[in-house]
Design goal:
CATH architecture: 3-Layer(aba) Sandwich
Largest sheet: 7 strands, parallel
Number of strands: 7
Strand order of the largest sheet: 3-2-1-4-5-6-7
Number of domains: 1
Length: 239
């Protein structure tokens, strides 16, 4: 049985990834700062293990891997979005966003890759964002910057880990109907309307649609895909 570690698993895309992996026979460790409901879809704690860790702390990231043990699949999905006008972004906000969105995926990927190298197999998927392509269309400069940085990290890990049978890829969702998108719409009621109008398919995506792309990259069928970022945005940004 393959073992997966999914961060940001309490809701949205992370929760959808967890459900998809459970249905495919994985044992899944779900990590979030928020409380998580169990069981999920009837799956008990023998295959779904919810964990609560603060990924803004690099020591906690390393302690997480020590507690979990061997991991075959890592999905770095946890992220923090703090929207603020450029003049009002504090050093604390900047550091907090970077620590969760960029440093945690780096630290976790380094930690799990040690065992993956020994086993000559592994999958890492990093959750980027359409903001990496646009720079952010709302007051999300730092968030977008971390998501662009995550693509660079993805490519570097792909080069370094590929010879060991480990693939590293990224997924960049566009406007997905998740709790994060709902929070954004509360602060800017016109935002979702503008995004939908800019999206050729004319709607928001679903968490399941984004999760399906993630799970594909974790599969054997995707074994020759390495170092890419797949856009899941309905054609909003075409690269």
């Amino acid at each position: 049985m393959r073992v997966a570690l999914v961060t940001g698993s309490a809701q949205g895309i992370g929760l959808a990834v967890v459900r998809n992996l459970l249905n495919k026979g994985f044992k899944v460790f779900g990590v979030d700062i928020k409380e998580q409901s169990t069981p999920i879809d009837g799956y008990g704690e023998e295959v779904f293990i919810p964990l609560r860790f603060d990924l803004s702390d690099s020591k906690e990231c390393r302690r997480l891997i020590d507690e979990v043990g061997e991991v075959d699949v890592l999905v770095n999905n946890a992220a923090l979005l703090i929207e603020n006008e450029l003049d009002n972004v504090s050093d604390h906000e900047f550091d907090e966003i970077v620590s969760i969105n960029l440093r945690a995926p780096f630290v976790l990927s380094v930690a799990v890759s040690k065992g993956m190298k020994e086993r000559k197999w592994g999958r890492i998927v990093n959750m980027s964002s359409v903001g990496a392509r646009t720079g952010g269309i709302s007051q999300s400069c730092i968030y977008a910057a971390t998501k662009a940085g995550l693509i660079a990290i993805t490519k570097n890990f792909a080069r370094n880990l590929g010879p060991y049978g480990i693939t590293t890829n990224a997924v960049a969702p566009g406007a997905i109907a998740t709790p994060m998108a709902v929070e954004q719409s509360l602060s800017d009621e016109s935002l979702l309307k503008r995004v939908v109008e800019a999206t050729p398919v004319g709607r928001l995506g679903t968490a399941d649609e984004a999760a399906a792309t993630v799970v594909f990259l974790l599969s054997e069928e995707a074994s020759f895909i390495n170092g890419v970022c797949l856009d899941v945005n309905g054609g909003w940004v075409m690269t």
